[in-house]
Each structure stands twice: as C-alpha cells, then as structure tokens.
Here is the input.
Amino acid sequence: MDTNDSDVNAFGATSSVDDGDDAEVTITPKEALEQLKNAMLTETLCPEILPHRGDLVDCITELMNMTKVNVALLKKSEFARSICMQELSRTRFMLTSYLRARLEKIERFSPAYFLDPVSESSFAQLLTQNEFTFARNVWNLTKQELESSALAHMPAIVSKLKKTMFPSPNLNRFVFFRVNEDCPDVLLDQDADQATQLEKGSLHLTRYAPVSALVAAGKLQLI
Here is the structure.
C-alpha cells in the first residue's frame, strides 16, 4: 500500500477529514493511515465511547480494497508485492483494533446506558446501527440472565435493576494528551482560578472530563 500514490476520498463530517460543510473531501492514503492510527489510540485510551468514525472506516476500507486489487496484479516474486502485503496487514490490524476497542466498551457499558432513557438516546448517536444492535442484544441477554438467576429469588424491594449496579465510564480518570490545534481558555480544573491556553503540539496530563468535548472533536489526541 503505497502512501504516496493517488488520493482517496473520505466522506463525513468528523475530525480533520471534514471540511466543515459535511461535504466530500480528499485526503491522501498517508493522511488516512495517520488518522486511523490516531483514532485507534484515542478510542483505546478514552474512558468513554467516542462517536464512530464512519467516514474514516469507509475510506480505509476503500483503500484496502484498492490495495488488494493492485497486489493481485503483481507477481509473487516482486518485492513490491511483499511491501504491499505488509502494509495491508498493518492497516487491517489498526482497523480491527479500533473496532474491537469500541465493541469492548459497548459490551461493558451498555447496561448502564440502557437503564437511563436520557443516556440511551445519546448512546445511540455514538454508534452505528450494527453497534447499537449489538449493544441492545448484550443488554437483553444480561437482563434476562440476571432476572432469571438472581433477581427472581430476591425480595421485591431489591429485585429491580439499577444503573448503579453496572460499570459506567470513569470520566474523572487522568489521561495524557497532545494538542492538535490551539485551544484557548480551557478550564482543566473546576477549582482553578483561570483557564489554560492549550498550544498546538504541547503535552498535558489532566482529568478526562474537562477535555472530553475537545477529544471528541479531534482537537486533542490521547497518547
């Protein structure tokens, strides 16, 4: 997969792929792979589930399909074929790692979200249709198992499932991050007397909650 070849189209309105108008934009394969690496790291390190990067996933899938076609045209003895296969494996690893990180958090946190109607609505907006179906199935199976094996044998006063019984994202967890673009007047601590100026390229350690919106917007990169 040559990262210096022709451009690849990516669609959507998220992070640096978007031009701000929900329009189709063009990025190079090298830029797409860099964004995939950043998305994988941020999703893996983030305490909560981030909005799905459907634009980037589609772009990478298209890029991988193009590479498979190119590889099929090369002879097995050609050195370029070996390089393309290695790059294809690396890209597949990053993509599956990104999707796996999301599924692990969906499986862990879905009960807490489904027990809160307000949280359920916002939860659904973060997921693809397939992810939401998976989350719903996880919740239904968990609920069915708990009700049949435990709650049915308990007094009525304690036989109702509550959100506090299940794990929720720890938004107070400390995270390291790199600033992707200047962010003025960021309040990193609610007890702080003044806001902090986050300069592009700088590194910081702070609680996740105050910077969650900036992470979701792609302005900060978790590391």
About this structure: The chain has two domains: 8-148, 174-222. Residues 1-16 have pLDDT under 50 and may be disordered.
